[in-house]
């Protein structure tokens, strides 16, 4: 699918369907970035569906606790918990997974909402450009480390857990240069200070969202159609959000004006996260926009895109396997080679 800027802007004025509903009694939901914005609004929806347990995965204990108190006040929901995770720190992600192993509870829905956009290059303590680590490395790392718990949940309770990865329509303008793919080590190149020039950083968020969709499609291809686990990529649209809080003036002023004119509310955007988690239809490996399945970008579905998908998957697993060897164990036990 080729999306024009005009079509994307026009879509912002569509009336969105109401939020999808399901009975979540007894089920455990984990939402990354749950203390604010889309994450918090989705938590409120899951609470209204009677989720047996909701884990608000946040970077800050104080902000997470404030969100939990707000959730109680606004919905009366009493089964929320705050767990700490910082996607800009691989050790924090590993500690989060360790806690889940020790907890031994079920996991039915994983909503991977946390994400950042940076106007200039900033390195994490792990040596990666921040947005590629948070959006495109740590997000898959969480999914792969928690996947065994989700498979165990499927076996024990006869359910079909879901992983929801939040992407963006901006992936339509986020292709990866052929020369980067051709030389190998594309993810390492993309996450380096040498590659992330000020000009490239202007649209680098788009690239990280492209990588999100490649991950979803690659993971789905290796799960197999009969595997009791669904993974989807969802686009919340252009919403009122704190995502752009780090943008400098005058770009921040322009974005604030655009929010006033054409942005969905945060609650409206959260409906897409919820649709990915509980919505009906054939959603395996799909890209969801405005509560329906759509084709992703022409680049992603092209033959070159399929080659890039497989290459990036192999590179991702090699990188994450060095971060935590449990990733390799998960791949070997639960995933097959791409069809």
Overview of this protein structure:
- It holds the Pfam family adh_short.
- One of its GO terms (molecular function) is oxidoreductase activity.
- InterPro entries: NAD(P)-bd_dom_sf (IPR036291), SDR_fam (IPR002347).
- Keywords: Oxidoreductase.
- This is NAD(P)-binding protein.
- By secondary structure, this protein is α/β, with parallel strands linked by helices.
- It has one domain (22-333): 3-Layer(aba) Sandwich (Rossmann fold).
- The protein is built from 14 helices and eight strands.
- The protein has helices at 5-11, 37-48, 61-75, 90-103, 130-157, 178-182, 186-190, 198-201, 204-223, 251-262, 266-278, 298-301, 303-323, 326-334, and strands spanning 28-32, 53-58, 80-84, 109-112, 162-166, 230-235, 287-289, 292-294.
- An eight-stranded mixed sheet has the order 3-2-1-4-5-6-7-8, sandwiched between helices.
- Helix 2 (37-48) packs across helix 11, helix 4 runs parallel beside helix 5 and helix 5 (130-157) packs parallel to helix 9.
- The radius of gyration is 19 Å and the shape is globular.
- The chain starts with a helix and ends in a 5-residue tail after the last helix.
- 45% of the residues are buried.
- The model has no long low-confidence stretch (mean pLDDT 92).
